Here is the input.
Amino acid sequence: MWPATHTPLAWLNLTHNKRRLAVSVAGVLGTVLMMFMQVGFRNALLDGQTVLIERLRTDLVVLSKQTRTLASPTAFSRRCLSQALAVAGVVAAQPLYSAVTTWKKPHEHGAHAIRVLAVDPTAAVLLFPEPERDREALQWADTALFDVQSKSYYGKVAPGMQTELARRTLRIVGLFTLGTDFVQDGNLLMSDRNFGKFFPYRLSTEGALRRVDIGLLQLAAGVDPLSVQRAVGQVVPADVVVLTKAQVRAQERAYWQNSTPIGFVFTLGTAVGFVIGVMICYQILFTDVMDHLPQFATLKAIGYTHWQLIAVVLQEAFLLACVGFLPGVGLTHVLYTVLAGLTGLPFFLTIWRGGLVLLLAIALALVAGITAVRKVLATDSAEVFA
Here is the structure.
């Protein structure tokens, strides 16, 4: 039976020594930040690889079966898009071209690899506001838009600037925002006609772009995407696959999470942060228990059961986790904003990710509390006051 008093013992234990409270909160805060950084980098990796497909107006995506990641797609015959367009429910089938080449500013030493994306600027396939605004400029010869979230070593790029791309002069006529990922550090967007000029090896003997990197299918309003997906899959060759946006997203995330060491490393980092947090919280709670051992012995002597003593320590652990988590959220938001600006990666502090770290913080504090409370349970009140 609980005693009649409502005195918040756990809170008073935690806050009676302000200096120790500050040190304890700092320890938990460091653990929370460590886990937030690991979760942030992991999700920035996974989200960054799907940003491109999310920024395209498409219902179904056609890819070569050899494509493992959108960062380096394998080209397939453009004829597949013509076959898909003949299927009922498909109203548009547009190609997206992708290639990596060298970027070099005139009169400067050194060159950097950059990804070049190309579409038909007259087709409504882009969900970027900037290319829509600069659609006419994209149709001019030897022009492109530059991704403002590209890495800083590409230099300060502004509309009207001339640079060298694939050993050919290129004029920047506008800017757009896409973002980098763990493979590509910068992006350019140009028309399909200019793409053929800068990458002549992609042209057929007739001078046309016959191979596509990503196919974009737009469907009529009201049709069932899964039904159209099955129908398109039956008419296109066996070397391509037709996927919904959600399936592309899942495939991309699964590749980077399961087929590369990067996803494993960040997941392991979160686990390591959890273990370190348990150790830190255990030291904090064990020290507090030892300092208050006479008080705990008194509680046992006046009728507190083992479960009630456990509840006091676990409440203290819970409060410690929450108090350390709150400033961690604010600092994480600041760090995510800085990292997004420096790297171009999509660092987002969502409710779900914050909730995950909060649950981990509470769990590690409770594990530490259960470990630390054993000293209280083993204490004999008579020996403490002997």
Notes: The CA atoms of residues 130 and 351 lie 30 Å apart. Residues 1-5 have pLDDT under 50 and may be disordered.
